[in-house]
Give the backbone structure.
Amino acid sequence: MRTKYDLTIAYRIYPKVSKNPLVFSDDKYKLSELCLRSLKESLGDLRAKLIVLLDNCPPEYIDLFKKYFDQEDLELIELDGVGNLSTFGMQIELLLEQNFSDVVYFAEDDYYYLPNQFSEMINFLEKNNDVDFVSPFDHIDYYKFNFHDYKNKIKFSEKKHWQNVATTCLTFLTTKKTLERTQNIFKTYAKGNYDTSIWASLTKFNIFNPFKLFKYKEKPYFIAVFFKSWRYSFIQHLFGKKWTLWTPIPTIATHIESEDVSPTINWLKIICHKL
């Protein structure tokens, strides 16, 4: 039986600016609208159910989601400032409990998406049995840090190249079945685990040779990643499946933080054209 929706999105949003975004660095509402509108345009004709976690957001944020999504496609959950760790845990539970779709998406509020490209992620996920997770974000870290100097695979699909990578952030696509099998690893985030070390535990890149990390210029952070991954996920390391995480080249979206934007694209020019 075909479900009504192509995917279900758990979208978490907080009304304060973090770090240093490319635009609207002092206005989270305008930044939120920019990112939300780009997501809507990227979805194109996809049927999406949007479950929104509004963490300590004023009423105008509710109106913002109603502006871009039909009421029947929205589920709005107002929270009293429970914080980043709790909202991620809620995303996991909500996406596992829902029956709107098999494909699920974790969304953060500070990503800018390119129009009509979201479906490429879903098609890639559904057409390839060796694809477990898909991120829309071709992260600059893959080209900047020695940690990502490893042998990986490349696929060509949906007009893009896709590479399997070690890590990403907490915006990603997967299926309910995969999320159910990996949920306990993701839930260690609430216990103090890093997002990077969670992904390293799942993909098993660079987790068996700590001495390799000492030669990296970015070694303090990635040594911490290594030890956290073992602290929280040693059973997964030794006995768990090696899961695959894939990202597109060129990218489908970017984190809008100025130092993290995806390479090769003039994001400021693209974004300013939309303002």
User: Anything to note?
Assistant: The chain has a mean pLDDT of 95.
